[in-house]
Structure formats: structure tokens, C-alpha cells
Write a structure and sequence with these properties.
- The chain has 322 residues and is of the alpha/beta class.
- The protein is built from 12 helices and 12 strands.
- The strands form 3 sheets. The protein has a 5-stranded mixed beta sheet with strand order 3-2-1-4-7, with helices on both faces. The protein has a 5-stranded mixed beta sheet with strand order 10-9-8-11-12, sandwiched between helices. It has a two-stranded antiparallel ribbon with strand order 5-6.
- It is globular.
- The two termini are 35 Å apart.
- Bound molecules: zinc ion.
Length: 322
């Protein structure tokens, strides 16, 4: 143990979302030290939002008891869109930041090593590949089903970026060419059909009414389905089938060992999952895609932090040059 700790390296990991910021010091054996989490208040002030991030991360370092000099760099996951690898962000769910030079500002606050910033769905994919349900998979895709639908690809044991860092945007696979309009401008994208808010909207359009005391959101819809509401069941079945269909297309194209499904809305219960597995089985029919494993990641944030740390702890697999 002493020897392993002697050789261990540490990275500061930051995960920035629209409603919360999380940070931790991550040791190269996957241990999370000094994990810290703060809620994000609505703000239009870009510097205030940045201050919350820096304070949250600095506190994580403090609590971890790892000296700042022992931290080799900072890995950060943040909602997109962003300019990569520059890390200039305009997250849909963080209105305070438009063309905000987040990577450069973090580098000023934590000047002792590289700061690597990528899409939060990419961080999650790296975490799933390093220490999650896809550990050991040479080729894998992580799909995050949440407010939006995102993804990240590991091919041949290396994070795959594409030409602009946007590889893995599975939310915009076309599921129904004549389907609902997507925020991207196309029609029938996976995200337009199966994200949490779009599934709730579909249910409401079909006449779903949350029971009194329940909210018209993903968790409310999941509880309604469990309680026997037929529209809620159909809505979750439709969403799960769409995710399973998209996942099957990806398995057919990429010959994957594993696909990991993560994100808050993926915790919507059996109607979602039964439909997902059913659609995957129907559409992944090539001999090689039939053997692609479909796994759940039900961690709540730890995997994203592990992945963000992975950017700097394992640069040959998960890193990039600026
Ligand atoms: Zn789209």
C-alpha cells in the first residue's frame, strides 16, 4: 500500500452542470478524496458562476489534504456546446456563460499544471471506461439520457474526439425522419424524442396529468408509470425504445464491446428499460452487434469526476494536446 501511494498521482476533477457543481481530488487508483458539491443559483453573472466553480474546487483540494503541489493538473467536464480544445463554453443550461473562456480562467486559478476541459458526456464516458461498467471494454459508447442526450466514444482504448471534439453526439442520431423538431434544426433526433423534458412534453400532449403533489418532470413521470398510469408507461416505453434503437445503430456501425446508458432520466424504471432492451434486440441483428453488452451506469456523479480526472491522469488514453 505504501508503495502504491508513493507512486500515486492526483488530479483535480471538476464537473459543472446547470444545477450543481462537483469537485474532488482523484488519485490515480480511482480513489475520490475531498469530494465537494454545491448547488448553482440562477445567475447571469459569468464571474459569479466562475467563482462558485473555483471555490468548490479549492475546497475539495483543502478537504482532500493533498498539497496543491501534489496535483498534476485539472480535468473538467462541462455542458456544451463548446469550442474544443480551447474550452470556450456556451452551455445551454448555464445562461451566464456565452463564449466564456472557462479553460483559460481555470488555468489562471490553478496554474500548476495543465487544465483540460471537455463536454460532460465525454467525461462520463471516460469514467465509465476507466472504472465503470465498461471497464475492460476496448470499444465502447456511453449514452447520457438526461435533460439532453449526449455521448462519448472510446475506440481501441482511446478517447475518440473527431475533427472538432464533437464525436459521440448520439442525441442527434435520426430515429424518426418525420418526427418532432429538434433544437439542432433537424427532425426526429433521439434527443427530440427521448430526453427527459421532451418525453414529459410528449406525455402532457397525450393528456398526462401529474397526480396532485407530483411534478411534471422525469421523476414524476417515472412514479406515474409505476403507479399504473397508461400514458406515463407509453411515454417511457417510447423513450426507451428510441434510445435502444439509436444504441443498436451505433453497435452496428462501430462493432462495440459495450454501450453504457447513464444519466438521470435513464433511472426511469422498467418501462424505459424493457423497451430499450427490446429495441436493441430488434435492431442490433448483425452477429457482432448482438454480442455488444448494454450496461447501466447508476452512479450519481462520481463517474463524471473520475472521467474528468482521467483526462490528466492518463493522457495517452484520455488526454489531448492543447
Ligand atoms: Zn438534433
Amino acid at each position: 500500500v505504501a508503495d502504491m501511494q508513493h507512486n500515486a498521482q492526483h488530479a483535480l476533477a471538476i464537473d459543472i452542470g446547470g444545477t450543481k457543481i462537483a469537485a474532488a481530488v482523484v488519485r490515480s487508483d480511482g480513489e475520490l478524496l475531498g469530494q465537494n458539491r454545491v448547488a448553482v443559483q440562477p445567475t447571469r453573472d459569468p464571474n459569479l458562476m466562475l467563482k462558485w466553480v473555483i471555490d468548490c474546487a479549492a475546497r475539495a483540494v483543502e478537504v482532500s489534504s493533498v498539497p496543491a503541489s501534489g496535483i498534476i493538473g485539472v480535468g473538467c467536464g462541462c455542458g456544451g456546446p463548446m469550442k474544443w480544445p480551447e474550452g470556450i463554453v456556451s452551455p445551454i443550461n448555464i445562461p451566464a456563460w456565452r463564449d466564456f473562456p472557462l479553460r483559460r480562467r481555470l488555468a489562471s486559478a490553478f496554474p500548476d499544471g495543465p487544465v483540460l476541459l471537455h463536454n460532460d458526456a465525454i467525461a462520463l464516458a471516460v469514467g465509465d471506461h476507466w472504472r465503470g461498467p465498461a471497464a475492460g471494454a476496448r470499444n465502447m459508447l456511453a449514452i447520457t439520457v438526461s435533460t439532453g442526450i449526449g455521448g462519448g466514444l472510446i475506440l481501441d482504448n482511446e478517447l475518440f474526439h473527431g475533427k472538432s471534439g464533437n464525436a459521440g453526439h448520439v442525441g442527434h442520431i435520426i430515429i424518426e425522419p418525420d418526427g418532432p423538431r429538434c433544437a439542432c434544426g433537424a427532425h426526429g433526433c433521439l434527443e427530440a424524442i427521448a430526453s427527459g423534458p421532451n418525453t414529459v412534453r410528449w406525455a402532457l400532449d397525450q393528456g398526462w396529468q401529474p397526480a396532485s403533489g407530483e411534478s411534471a418532470d422525469g421523476p414524476g413521470l417515472a412514479r406515474a408509470a409505476e403507479a399504473g398510469d397508461d400514458i406515463a408507461r407509453r411515454a417511457l416505453t417510447r423513450a426507451g425504445a428510441a434510445v435502444g434503437t439509436g444504441a443498436a445503430s451505433m453497435a452496428n456501425v462501430l462493432d462495440l464491446d459495450a454501450i453504457v446508458i447513464a444519466g438521470g432520466f435513464s433511472r426511469s424504471g422498467r418501462y424505459f428499460w424493457d423497451a430499450l432492451h427490446g429495441a436493441f434486440g430488434s435492431y442490433a441483428r448483425m452477429r457482432f452487434s448482438q454480442t455488444t453488452r448494454v450496461e447501466r451506469d447508476e452512479s450519481r456523479g462520481e463517474t463524471s469526476l473520475l472521467g474528468a480526472a482521467g483526462f490528466v491522469l492518463f493522457p495517452e488514453r484520455y488526454g489531448w494536446s492543447l
